[in-house]
Amino acid sequence: MHVLVINKMIKAVFFDLDGTLADTAPDLAASLNQLLAEQGKAVLTFDVIRPTVSLGGNALVRLAFNIDEDKPEFISLRQRFLEIYKSRLHSGTHLFPGMPRVLDTLESDGLVWGVITNKPSWLTLPVMQKLGLDKRAKCIISGDTTENKKPHPAPMLHACKITDSDPGCSLYVGDAERDIEAGRAAGMHTLIAQYGYIGKDEEPSQWRADGIISDPGEIIDWIHNLHTD
Q1: Which listed residue (18, 27, 175, 179) is catalytic?
Q2: CATH of domain 12-23+93-228
Q3: Is there a contact between 7 and 227 (Cβ–Cβ < 8 Å)?
Q4: Which of 28, 38, 216, 223 is spaced 20 to 30 Å from 98 by Cα?
Q5: Does the annotation mark 16 as catalytic?
Q6: Where are the domains positioned within the chain?
């Protein structure tokens, strides 16, 4: 159930990782195409793969092989995909343009920031380390940190607990419907990262977020505007 947010002052900002904080799609797409090639299948274009990245490894394997998760071969394909991805985590991954300034501004303004992702910790932490953010983030919540992951609010509430943040004074930025659902359920303000991995058939305007941004820099503008309303 969505908890009504009544405090407009933002004191903590939490980010989804893939498609919001960092552009991880190049490495994930290359890994998926390597798996397809190993299996003797035709590779997919980047534009086909990109919108599925935020949905996780299972969704990418389903996309590539048109296979249901209950099929015996699904587990082995997913495992091989993750092995390939782990070996090339840092080849093309980078922060989205404008995001370094956003993080610098949040820190200079005294706001807490962290990451809440469904990516497993054994993949999340190396990415954050490579980006040089593992020590700067006040929390890194992965898909296996809490018993439930997004769209459940548990990861969001855990992030608030360990950073001593009030959900009503927190903002969550994500590029998937489950991100907004989780943030709303936790009582956070929410923003949709339109620049992320959103498919053409999706309708972010129906996700009931507090706003939609097309560039990371708009996060700072949105916070400042909220504070001056």
Answers
A1: 18
A2: 3.40.50.1000
A3: no
A4: 28
A5: yes
A6: 12-23+93-228, 25-87
